[in-house]
Request: fold
Amino acid sequence: MPMYDFEDIETGVRFSLQLSIAKREEYLKENLNIKQILGSPSLVRGHGLQGKNDEGWKENLARIAEAHPGTALAEKVGGRSSKEIKTREILKKHKIIE
Reply:
């Protein structure tokens, strides 16, 4: 949702609001003493560290993967020895496991 900059005509106070386009139109109609300051609207996205997992989360995923060795999570996260990997490959080759 975009952020818009506004100015109170009477006081000169500038402020920003996060509004949808429809809400912005409604807000300006209801508040005649407010004008929009033109500029490029900035989009507000998620907050925090998106896409970056801390070590605690990685350890939790590794524990889950270890408890469920045949899952896609176990394949992705890893944490297995080369012996375990080779054993699973042989079992898959001979269709003992899926």
Notes: Residues 2-42 form one domain. The CA atoms of residues 39 and 97 lie 60 Å apart. The chain has two domains: 2-42, 55-93. The chain has a mean pLDDT of 81.
